[in-house]
Amino acid sequence: MNRRHFTRLTGAGAAGLWLGIPSDRVPDGRRGPWNRVPELTANPGRLADRMRRLATFGANDAGGIDRVAFSDANIEARDWVAGLLRDAGFTPSTDFAGNLVARRAGTQAGLRPIMFGSHIDSVPGGGNFDGQVGAMGALEVATVLGEADHATRHPLEVVLFTNEEGGKTGSRAMAGEVEPFELDLPTASGFTIGDGLRRLGGDPARLGEVRREAGSLTAMLELHVEQGGVLDSDDVDIGVVEGIVGIMRWNVTVHGMTNHAGTTPMDRRADAMVGAARFVTSVYRIARDTPGRHVATVGRIEADPGAPNVIPGTVRLTLEIRDLTMEGIELLFERVRSRSEEISDASGVDFSFERFYVSRAAPTDPRIRDVVEGAARSLGLTSLRIPSGAGHDAQSIAILCPVGMIFVPSVAGISHAPEEFTADADVAAGTNVLLRTLLALDADGLG
User: Fold this and answer.
1) Is the dihedral of CA 182, 186, 192, 197 positive or negative?
2) Is the domain of 178 the same as that of 277?
3) pLDDT attached to residue 4
4) What is the distance, to the nearest Å, from the Cα of residue 335 to the centroid of all Cα atoms in its chain?
5) How far is it, in rounded angstroms, from Cα 139 to Cα 114?
6) Alpha-carbon gap, residue 402 to 327, rounded angstroms
7) What confidence tens digit (pLDDT) does each residue in 400-418 have?
8) ∠ at Cα 167 (104, 143), nearest 5°?
9) The domain containing residue 343 runs over which residues?
10) Do both 144 and 33 map to the same domain?
11) What distance in Å separates the CA atoms of residue 397 and residue 119, rounded to the nearest whole number?
């Protein structure tokens, strides 16, 4: 039977996890490096119930959610999560970037905190698992620790990051990377980022105080759905993330000449739309034909003046390039820009590029990869090392400390849509890997 068809997890065997594996085949979680890790286990029923409850905040008629950052639904959901974290023995507060940070003290003086969490804001018309799995998994870990009255050596911080879908504002503020102009950018909520932060209880004028110092955290862990179909199609339980792609985005403007569509001969036109069309196809071809694991996308385009009887004089579009290295992004961009010069000569138009977003590529820490892999093995779960093609909050925090990411399967790789789905069993499996990874790091640090 396929892994994703299981609908529940119950405590059984030494690993405390049932995945349809006979108890005599479940690896003994007390062997090797795991003999110092308490055998605590997530409550799958509670976890599933909380996933469904969170999905009611901002639910839409299509079966997905419109819980965009700074919306009323986003605020109500944060308040609900804060109350549950308080019940688990954590102390929640909101920093000046609007991040919900719930803290619990450790028992050994001088140890730096271990951070774990994700986000609960969605894209417009999004699904019920992107971000939610990591947020509810972190909440479940906090609850399990509270129920067991298990004191950790390290201080712990559970974080719900602000505006992940709209530019990772909260996590980038912790890294000191939010630019002043971003505060004036509009969001899907109808509020600018600055006004949205105020709605959450933050203060844009004091954003600099959110910045953490490099080395101030022991580690950061994030559980997330894969947002790709590899784990699902290969029937693998856990993705051990090798690294998170870097992202760069540019506003591209094609400058031509506005003129009458009926009276201007075809050989006397400087049609910005024609130049833009050639640019779009060249981006696709360059990305496809250049060896590597990069992707490039033109995601938005608009013509000015935008009338059916007028030759467009200006076309504005966006260019996004992602790769596991920043050098790979720059290389691809230089090829795209070189091609735009050739299009200019052939079409009689000009191109200008304005970079407006940078999110650095972030390899995960190899020591944490080993711990995640070992945690999965100790629970009788299969795992695969894979890259992340999507950006995540852990990417921002990687400038501050070692980070690790745990992926669980997303059925058919669907993401950012109401059809997005991850089985309850997979959510619980990922949460148990998160829990055991956290406990292992707390017991042994990073060596």
Assistant:
1) negative
2) no
3) 46
4) 28
5) 14
6) 21
7) 999 999 999 999 999 999 9
8) 25
9) 246-359
10) yes
11) 14
